[in-house]
Amino acid sequence: MTSPHTLGRKELERLIIHNIPRDAFMACEDAYYGGDVKGRSHASIFERGHRPSAAGSVKHFFINESFHEALVTLGAEPTPLRGTRLVVGRLGIFNVARLNVPGHKWVNLQRSATRKKLAELNDSIGRKYVQNDFFAEASEPTGGTIFIVGVMDGQDENGISQLTQVMLALPAADMKSWLYMSTIADFLKLYDRVEDIVQPDNAKPKLKPHTKKQTDNDQGNQ
Questions:
Q1: Beta bridge partners of 170
Q2: pTM higher than 0.70 for the full model?
């Protein structure tokens, strides 16, 4: 028997797939890696003692620029580039923003007031797909937020933290937990499953009725 939690997760995945095309996640992932490579390259000119601090700032700007460019190309109308502000685009019902996580340490994410406001938009998603209330009908979500998460738990030859994984994650409204989380690589496989679903062929071929040969008719068939 499929558990309610499993059903909710699958329905949430369908909601994401319905609103965000495969190419969008691929573009965001490529943008993250591209910005990380460019940022590490520029940060490597600093003295080793300065590199960790310098790289954090430099990579932020380069990744922001590449992420912004990807959202523009996708028609997601991102917010303008401005200092350290979050770049936020819109795809379907979802706001899309990015988030860096050093070494898989998912802490201190509530310090940003902007992130908090974005996370609050996931309240109806949480109620409908994750925290089902058996005594109340959950409304259809009309908005939400997905974070494209860059996990920085590697280190390159210059001693600079390196992006090793890009994920997508939906925070709970209070940002104390996650409604959904997956690597982009794994999530992209779900699109293949959707495309592999073959619609049932309800067409029923009808045989042409056999006409009995007539004899001695007006056309001379005998």
A1: 180
A2: yes
